[in-house]
């Protein structure tokens, strides 16, 4: 493989890693915001048992939903890419 192809591959890997980090940061930010609004009525020095349970359940549901949506989106992209490749093959 030529040096430029190796560099291109490394660059693509770095970009994918940066996107993954940005997605994780976005998920954490949104999860924190939504679960705080839902579970914390009166912010104080500590969380009571009800708030702790609510936060835990909210975070679990949020992450499950995020993962479900991410998988569905990935599957959709895969199907569209496959369809586009089939269309190209049909044209050629």
Automatic annotation (TrEMBL):
GO biological processes: protein insertion into mitochondrial inner membrane; protein transport
Residues of the Tim10-like domain: 14-74
UniProt keyword Disulfide bond, yes or no: yes
Keywords: Chaperone, Disulfide bond, Membrane, Metal-binding, Mitochondrion, Mitochondrion inner membrane, Protein transport, Translocation, Transport, Zinc
Membrane topology classification: Peripheral membrane protein
MF (Gene Ontology): metal ion binding
Family: Belongs to the small Tim family.
Domain text: The twin CX3C motif contains 4 conserved Cys residues that form 2 disulfide bonds in the mitochondrial intermembrane space.
Name under which the protein is recorded: Mitochondrial import inner membrane translocase subunit
